[in-house]
Design brief:
By secondary structure, the chain is of the alpha/beta class. The chain has helices at residues 5-9, 11-23, 32-44, 104-121, 141-147, 150-153, 207-225, 263-284, 303-317, 335-341, 372-386, and strands at residues 48-53, 57-63, 71-77, 127-133, 158-169, 173-174, 178-181, 183-192, 196-197, 232-241, 247-248, 251-260, 287-296, 299-301, 322-323, 344-352. The relative contact order is 0.21. The structure holds the ligand CC(=O)N[C@@H](CCC[C@H](N)C(=O)O)C(=O)O. Residues 136-138, 140, 184, 186, 257, 295-296, 331-333 line the site of the ligand CC(=O)N[C@@H](CCC[C@H](N)C(=O)O)C(=O)O. InterPro entries: Amidohydrolase (IPR017439), Bact_exopeptidase_dim_dom (IPR036264), Peptidase_M20 (IPR002933), Peptidase_M20_dimer (IPR011650).
């Protein structure tokens, strides 16, 4: 892959860092070890380090030569997911119930690789802010960093983010103007049934039976209510009820993840879920409580900055490996909050390869170390082209 030669020289180092992060995954707002390692490495390369932003967030500030006053923000997320790793690489997760199943170990490493190179060369005119954020997986770490003054303390003209993409061939880069990733909402449903002895169902209101009807009704929201030419996902990701096989439980809980791209569909889905809960509850003579939380906005790339990503990517991997109108996906990203504050763009870095094609959030997923220099080289080239020396 035609990556930056100097960055390619420390591919082995980056692989070691990535595997160390992988072996020590930490979930949202608990990224203490990760943040400490990031801060230590940045400091060792002479980069000014600020810690404790949104709890465990870290920002490294590197000034290049010249007096242009330009500044750029490059963002990586550091958190892992609350799940067990099922693969068995030598650097398998040492933290039970914790796993880097979304490749944030790779995102952190690629940004560190770029930081090391740029600190060595300082071949740009302006300031680079390396933003290592906590809690992308549901904690809105990006929003909290912004609320804690990220862009006031570290002014950025533009802000950029990379996500690995195991669904794309390794070393390819995908971007598009417009929506790239969906917005994410959550719904927490509590069926308030009536507990009873398992042998006397007629004395109770079985919340499992109600929950099953709700589950089935929810499957029709996308298939029967949303315009087939538009997109939405409603996943019932958790269904909890019961403690013993001779007890009809009193309550059941369903937890939903909802993904949409536009406001009309978002509102329609919420309204249909609420109506189903009310109707099914009435039919069974019980209440279904709904807590509906609107979460991340969709990631929408402006045309100009998506074009910049395409141009830079072509210089790093060659035009044949760049998709300038890549397919959007229904996963979500709190980087949307950063894009709401500053112009910039979000892009995919392909990581798929034989044996490396488990999807994000799969218990066998593992970031493809082969693409570490590609991501770091993209970052370096972006800085060099956005803030060239005079
Ligand atoms: C608060 C919120 O919207 N949470 C979402 C965030 C999911 C982000 C993650 N990257 C994904 O796509 O699953 C949620 O569903 O928990």
């Amino acid at each position: 892959m035609p990556v930056n030669n100097r960055i390619a020289e420390f591919h082995d180092d980056m692989t070691e860092w990535r595997r160390d992060f992988h072996a020590h995954p930490e979930i949202k707002f608990e990224e203490h070890r990760t943040a400490a390692r990031v801060a230590e490495m940045l400091q060792s390369w002479g980069i000014e380090v600020h810690t404790g932003i949104a709890g465990t967030g870290v920002v490294g500030v590197l000034r290049g030569t010249g007096s242009s006053g330009r500044a750029i923000g490059l963002r990586a997320d550091m958190d892992a997911l609350p799940m067990d790793e099922e693969g068995n690489p030598p650097y398998r997760s040492q933290n039970p119930g914790r796993m880097h199943a979304c490749g944030h170990d790779g995102h952190t490493t690629m940004l560190l690789g770029a930081a090391r190179y740029l600190a060595e060369t300082r071949n740009f005119d302006g300031t680079v802010n390396f933003i290592f954020q906590p809690a992308e997986e549901g904690g809105a770490g990006a929003r909290i960093m912004i609320e804690e003054g990220l862009f006031d303390r570290f002014p950025c003209d533009t802000v950029w983010g990379i996500h690995n993409a195991p669904h794309m061939p390794a070393g390819t880069i995908g971007v598009r103007p417009g929506p790239l990733m969906a917005g994410a909402d959550q719904a927490f449903l509590t069926v308030k049934g009536k507990g009873a002895h398992a042998a006397r169902p007629h004395d109770g209101i079985d919340p499992i039976a109600v929950g099953v009807q709700l589950y089935q009704g929810i499957q029709t929201v996308v298939s029967r209510n949303v315009d087939p030419l538009k997109s939405a996902v409603v996943t019932v990701a958790q269904f909890h009820a019961g403690t013993a096989n001779n007890v009809i439980p009193h309550t059941a809980e369903l937890k939903l993840s909802i993904r949409t791209f536009d406001e009309d569909v978002r509102s329609l889905v919420e309204q249909r879920i609420r109506a189903l809960c009310e109707g099914v509850g009435t039919a069974f003579g019980c209440e279904v409580e709904v807590e509906y939380r609107r979460g991340y906005s969709p990631v929408i790339n402006p045309e100009e900055t998506a074009g910049i990503v395409g141009d830079v990517a072509e210089q790093v991997v060659g035009a044949e490996k760049v998709e300038r109108d890549t397919t959007p996906i229904m996963a979500s990203e709190d980087f949307a909050f950063m894009l709401a504050e500053r112009p910039g763009a979000f892009l995919w870095l392909g990581g798929g390869a034989p044996g490396k094609d488990y999807g994000l959030h799969h218990p066998m997923y593992d970031f493809n170390d082969e693409v570490l220099p590609v991501g770091a080289s993209f970052w370096a080239k972006l800085v060099e082209t956005q803030m060239p020396r005079g």
